[in-house]
C-alpha cells in the first residue's frame, strides 16, 4: 500500500509551536482544495469511500482519530493524533475515518476540486475496479 506518513516542519517556540505544509516540499501534489471535518459525535464514522483519481493528505489538526485504509487486499489502520503528521492517501484506496476524539479536527488537503463523479461509494464496486486494474 502506497499510503505513508508525511512529517511537517515544526517550529518549536515557547510562545507556541508552528507547523506548515507546502507543495512540493511536503505535499506530493498540487493542492486544489482543503476541507475539514469537525464536531463529529462520538461513535460516528466519516468518509467511507474511495476516489478514482484524487490524492489526499489527512491531518489531525486537533484531537485524534483513526484512518482505516483498504487497498482491495489488505487493511491497515493509522491513528492520527499530532498536527505535524499527515497521512498521504493515494487514489483507489478505500478509506474510513473513525474513532474521533472529542474536539477532533480533521483537515484534508486534496489534489482535486469536489467532484461527486470521482467517488466510489460502494465497497463491492471498489473491489471489482481494483481487481480489474490489477488483472
Ligand atoms: P463526503 O465526502 O461524501 O463525506 P462523507 O463520506 O464523510 O459523508 O461529503 C459529504 C457531503 O458534503 C457530500 O455529499 C457533498 C458535500 N461536500 C462538498 O460539497 N464539498 C466538499 O469539498 C466535500 C468534501 C463534501
Q: Ions, cofactors, ligands: which are bound?
A: thymidine-5'-diphosphate
- The largest sheet has its strands arranged as 1-9-6-11-4
Number of helices: 1
Instruction: Give helix and strand order, one letter per element, not per position.
Output: EEEEEEEEEEEEH
Total number of beta strands: 12
Helix content: under 10%
Would you give the CATH topology? Jelly Rolls
Spatial extent as radius of gyration:
15 Å
CATH class: Mainly Beta
How far apart the termini lie comes to 17 Å
Main sheet overview: 5 strands, antiparallel
Unreliable stretches covering 5 or more consecutive residues: none
The coarse overall form would be globular
In percent terms, what proportion of residues is strand? 35-45%
**Shape-level CATH architecture:** Sandwich
Q: Indicate the mean pLDDT.
A: 97
Please identify the structural class as seen in this structure: mainly beta
Number of domains: 1
CATH homology superfamily name: Jelly Rolls
Helices and strands in order:
Elements lengths: L3 E4 L2 E2 L6 E2 L13 E5 L8 E6 L4 E7 L2 E6 L4 E6 L4 E5 L4 E5 L6 E6 L8 E2 L2 H11 L2
Antiparallel strand pairs: 1-9, 2-3, 4-11, 5-10, 5-12, 6-9, 6-11, 7-8, 7-10
The structure holds thymidine-5'-diphosphate (TYD).
Q: How would you characterize this protein structure?
A:
With 135 residues, the protein is mainly beta. The chain has one domain: Sandwich (Jelly Rolls). Helices cover 8% and strands 41% of the residues. The chain contains one helix and twelve strands; from the N terminus they run ββββββββββββα. The protein has one helix spanning 123-133, and strands at residues 4-7, 10-11, 18-19, 33-37, 46-51, 56-62, 65-70, 75-80, 85-89, 94-98, 105-110, 119-120. The strands form three sheets. Strands 1-9-6-11-4 form a five-stranded antiparallel beta sheet, with no helix packed on it. Strands 8-7-10-5-12 form a five-stranded antiparallel beta sheet. The radius of gyration is 15 Å and the shape is globular. The model has no long low-confidence stretch (mean pLDDT 97). Bound molecules: thymidine-5'-diphosphate (TYD). The site of thymidine-5'-diphosphate has 7 residues, from strand 4 and strand 5.
Amino acid at each position: 500500500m502506497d499510503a505513508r506518513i508525511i512529517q511537517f516542519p515544526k517550529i518549536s517556540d515557547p510562545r507556541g509551536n508552528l507547523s506548515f505544509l507546502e507543495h512540493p516540499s511536503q505535499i506530493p501534489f498540487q493542492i486544489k482544495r482543503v476541507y475539514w471535518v469537525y464536531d463529529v459525535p462520538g461513535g460516528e464514522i466519516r468518509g467511507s469511500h474511495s476516489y478514482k483519481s484524487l490524492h489526499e493528505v489527512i491531518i489531525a489538526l486537533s484531537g485524534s482519530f483513526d484512518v482505516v485504509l483498504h487497498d482491495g487486499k489488505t487493511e491497515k489502520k493509522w491513528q492520527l493524533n499530532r498536527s505535524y503528521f499527515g497521512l498521504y492517501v493515494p487514489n483507489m484506496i478505500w478509506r474510513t475515518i473513525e474513532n474521533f476524539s472529542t474536539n477532533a479536527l480533521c483537515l484534508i488537503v486534496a489534489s482535486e476540486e469536489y467532484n461527486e463523479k470521482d467517488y466510489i461509494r460502494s465497497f463491492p464496486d471498489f473491489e471489482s475496479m481494483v481487481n480489474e486494474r490489477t488483472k
